[in-house]
């Protein structure tokens, strides 16, 4: 078992449902519990509810009933859900706040989300639900472009700048995942300085990183590019990667990757899911 519990926020859009299907399938292979979460906001007017915010009571009840119907429909759309241990939660809250609370309460090991939600594939994601969740939580997050799949994870690309190698515990989920599915991993370094090869410090850090992947089929790859995000996406396409794993210390790279993945579907037709591992620095 890689993780015990997988949280899947849903807004009932087609992208969200696709992510739920993929997350449930992954949970079955891992014997993990699935928690489906829907968070909603409604116009403030009339009566207090649990959060202390006043809302129109009739509208609140209508939305709760609509959410229940949506979950009933989801059970029909994804019959595999009945084959796993699952919970359903709905709450009046912002998505990132609701996710953060459930992560803490349920000791969540992984979050799986769709990337475009109800906004549409051509909408830039920055400021939307998935991006805000990534900035808020500290557990691994997999974001899945609409139409992408986690069912065949044979090739994984993991990016590294060979400057500050993470502790093995920090990338434990990635290590456990590639072992579990039997994937090969490409450890990718993008050089934007125009210098061929690694310097002494980078060589040392690369050797330290290799120790983390002992016993796992892996290969180091080096690519020159003007921009890190462009280099990552170019290599991901060429490698026919099934999953792209990044561990940014700053969210700038996530911003760039998300812009490209939404407006250009990761800039290529491969629709590669993106795993974000939070840095220990």
From TrEMBL:
SUPFAM superfamilies tied to this protein: Adenine nucleotide alpha hydrolases-like
UniProt-listed InterPro entries: Rossmann-like_a/b/a_fold, Universal_stress_UspA, UspA
Gene3D superfamilies given in the database record: HUPs
Phylogenetic placement of the source organism: Bacteria, Pseudomonadati, Bacteroidota, Cytophagia, Cytophagales
Residue ranges occupied by any UspA domain in the UniProt entry: 4-145, 172-278
Descriptive protein name: Universal stress protein
Pfam name, any one: Usp
Organism of this sequence: Marinigracilibium pacificum
Family to which this protein belongs: Belongs to the universal stress protein A family.
């Amino acid at each position: 078992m890689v993780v015990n519990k997988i949280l899947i926020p849903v807004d009932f859009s087609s992208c969200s449902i696709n992510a739920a299907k993929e997350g449930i399938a992954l949970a079955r292979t891992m014997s993990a519990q699935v928690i489906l979460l829907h968070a909603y906001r409604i116009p403030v007017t009339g009566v207090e509810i649990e959060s202390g915010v006043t809302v129109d009571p009739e509208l609140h009840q209508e939305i709760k009933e609509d959410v229940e119907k949506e979950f009933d429909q989801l059970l029909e759309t994804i019959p595999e859900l009945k084959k796993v241990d699952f919970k359903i939660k709905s709450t009046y809250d912002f998505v990132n706040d609701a996710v953060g609370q459930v992560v803490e309460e349920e000791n969540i090991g992984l979050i799986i989300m769709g990337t475009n939600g109800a906004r549409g594939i051509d909408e830039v994601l920055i400021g939307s639900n998935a991006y805000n969740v990534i900035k808020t939580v500290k557990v691994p997050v997999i974001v899945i472009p609409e139409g992408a799949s986690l069912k065949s994870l044979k090739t994984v690309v993991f990016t590294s700048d060979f400057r500050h190698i993470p502790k093995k515990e920090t990338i434990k989920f990635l290590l456990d995942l590639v072992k579990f599915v039997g994937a090969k991993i490409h450890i990718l370094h993008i050089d934007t300085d125009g210098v061929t090869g690694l310097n002494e410090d980078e060589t040392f850090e690369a050797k330290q990183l290799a120790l983390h992947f002992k016993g796992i089929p892996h290969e180091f790859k080096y690519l020159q590019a003007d921009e890190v995000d462009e280099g990552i996406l170019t290599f991901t396409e060429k490698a026919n990667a099934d999953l792209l794993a990044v561990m940014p210390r700053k969210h700038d790279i996530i911003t760039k990757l998300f812009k490209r993945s939404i407006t250009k579907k990761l800039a290529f037709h491969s629709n590669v899911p993106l795993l974000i591992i939070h840095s220990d620095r």
